[in-house]
Every structure is written in structure tokens, then in C-alpha cells.
Amino acid sequence: MCARLILLLVVTVTALLAPPPPLFAAGAAAPVPDATVPTVGRAWPVGLRPRVLRGWEPPASVYGPGHRGVDLAAAPGTPVRAVAAGRVAFAGRVAGKGVVSVDLTGTGDPLLRTTYEPVTASVEEGQEVEPGEVIGTVDTAGSHCTATCVHWGLRRDETYLNPLSLLPPWLLHRGPSRLLPVYGTA
């Protein structure tokens, strides 16, 4: 019995001390916050802390190469959620892909717009959405990733921005919270 308790304790401590898996895949850079983007996000579009397969790579020119959003790992059928409160600007198909776009409430003039694809929409144009509300599910086809993913974009008017800038730092942190001892207290 004592040996089992010791083994359980060793396994538990090892699990707690092990570094968490990386949030960003190899080659996907951690976000650099954009000061022009308010941190209004309250939820990831998919999962609790999805792996970023490909990060934001702003183009050098309007039509130049780059990646105008981030790709988040997600299995087909995974619920896709609004990251912040807003109004659905578009829900339909573009070039054969399901797309949902949401204009974010209170983010300036013109409003910030998030876009999610490939998504089978469960919302309609003009519908108000709350942070974390399901707006659709990940499509089985239409992803430009090697594995199924959701491409999450952000723009203000015609300028593309890093969508990870919408999220507060505590949502970007990877790994469990740990309580530290408070010395000198009763």
C-alpha cells in the first residue's frame, strides 16, 4: 500500500513539474501584441488553448506574400466560437469554403472584423453573438493546412492584423496554474 502511494506521489509530482506542450508549432512565432488592437477577446475560437500551426506573417506590401491570420489545430466537427461580442457580418460560402465573419462591438471606427474558415455556420448575417458562443463547426474540407485547422483572421477596414492580439495574456499562457507557498503565514 505504501509503495503504491509513493508511486502515485512520484507520478503526480512529475506530471505537475513537466513542461507543458508548446502552444506554437515549429515555425509558428509567438504573438507580438498590436497596440492598435484592444484585448476584447474572451475565448479561443476552438478548444481551450489550441495549438497554433502557423502564426501571423504580415505581408510587406498589400499584395505581397504572407499569412493574414493564424491557423489553429482543430478536428472536423469541432465547435467554432466567437472570441468577442459582435454582430455576424457574413455567414456563407466563399470560393467553396464556409466562412463566418463577425464585426466586434466597441472596437472603433471602422470596427474590427474577425473571420473564421472553413466553417459550417450555425449563425446568420445580422445575428448578435456573445464571447464563447458557438457560431459553427469546423468543415471537413476547405482547410489550407496539412491537418484540419481553422484559419482565424482579423482586419480593420482593409488592413489585416494579428488576431492573437485580441486575446489577453492569460489566455495565451500554456499550462496549468500553480499555487506557490506563502512563507511566513500561519
From TrEMBL:
Keywords: Signal. It comes from the Bacteria. Residues 66-163 form the M23ase beta-sheet core domain. CDD domains: M23_peptidase. InterPro entries: Cell_wall_metabolism_enzyme, Dup_hybrid_motif, M23ase_b-sheet_dom. The keyword Signal applies. Pfam families: Peptidase_M23. This is M23ase beta-sheet core domain-containing protein. Residues 1-25 form the signal peptide. The lineage of its organism: Bacteria, Bacillati, Actinomycetota, Actinomycetes, Kitasatosporales. GO terms for molecular function: metalloendopeptidase activity.
